[in-house]
Amino acid sequence: MTRRPGWTDLAGLTFTFFALGVTVNVLVLERIGSETKTVVAALAINSATSELAYLAVRDAGGTIIASLIAGWIVASRFGLLAVSLGSRMSAGRLHRVAAATQAFDPNVTLAVQQRDRREVTRVFWIVTAAMHAGWYTGTFTGVFLGNVIGDTQRLGLDTVFPAALLAIIGNLLRRRPGAVAALLGGGLCVVLIPVAPAGVPIIVSLVGAFVALTVPEPGATT
Amino acid sequence: MTWTVIALLALGVVTQRLLGMFVGAAVLERIPALARLASLIPAAVVAAVIVQLTVASGKSLVVDERFAGMVTAGVLVWRRAPFVVVIVGAAATTALLRL
């Protein structure tokens, strides 16, 4: 994706979050059986992975406390992304509160690639609007029309979100520090998935970012 | 999932986001040596999320149709294909292999 997302990029993001909203909420509705709760959970928790982690641990026989902890841990990445966003945007306190509640992977990753602080804020909110247009329509479609769409995995919709994320970090991967951070973060995740509790591999991936700090930017003076 | 669970999950998630914005970001801004983390954190964390969504099935690692879809996405990103082409190409590869 280009550093400054254009209209087709934003339309693609809306489609991505529509697909995500449908696939996640069909699964959540199957497990909790209430349309109202599924919609409220999607809008209030504001983290699909948190919902899925909670349900996965409950399904595996975990206690409510253990399931809640899993749900919180997998959402810790949004806290990390908020660190990144907060250090780059210029905004007042209320504006920051609003932005923090909307810190997701695509909007933060695209925003922090902007050079100017005002552009960081502008791109963040434009991308957020595109994402939410898809997430809300996808949520309602998944909850109320999920049986019409059928098996979303058959359509390959579960690949749309990771593919979108890969395109979004594409520019970061072309620079050595970004590539090192991503390769180490992803590599640590692969190693830890079989042995660590849900969500922990993603927290540990942060090590990749710290190691990449030691890699000089090409052309930078040290 | 009870209403209390929904409220507790929501509270936990939003608290982490606010801590990141007001505590973590303040630390990052005060230590110039860490300034570059602003773009490196998303690279590391998002790469881990991609791995999780591509090869994880519970606590097992599996190489299935999702992986093939992501290989297609990787090639398209490397060739600087438009965003829409990347996501449609990945989904189409996965869907075709599941026929």
List the helices and strands and how they pair.
The complex is a heterodimer of chains A (222) and B (99).
Chain A: H1 7-32, H2 35-45, H3 48-59, H4 64-74, H5 76-86, H6 93-101, H7 105-111, H8 117-149, H9 160-168, H10 170-173, H11 176-192, H12 200-204, H13 206-212
Helix pairs in contact in A: 1-2, 1-3, 1-8, 2-8, 3-4, 5-7, 7-8, 11-13
Chain B: H1 3-30, H2 37-55, E1 56-57, E2 60-61, H3 65-78, H4 83-97
Helix pairs in contact in B: 3-4
What does this structure look like?
Chain A is mainly α and 222 residues long. Chain A folds into 2 domains: 149 residues, no CATH class; 48 residues, no CATH class. Helices cover 73% and strands 0% of the residues of chain A. Chain A has 13 helices and no strands. In chain A, α1 packs across α8, α3 runs antiparallel to α4 and α5 runs parallel beside α7. The model of chain A has no long low-confidence stretch (mean pLDDT 87). Chain B is mainly alpha-helical and 99 residues long. Chain B folds into 2 domains: 35 residues; 61 residues, no CATH class. In chain B, 77% of the residues lie in helices and 4% in strands. Chain B has a two-stranded antiparallel sheet with strand order 1-2. In chain B, α3 runs antiparallel to α4. The longest helix of chain B has 28 residues.
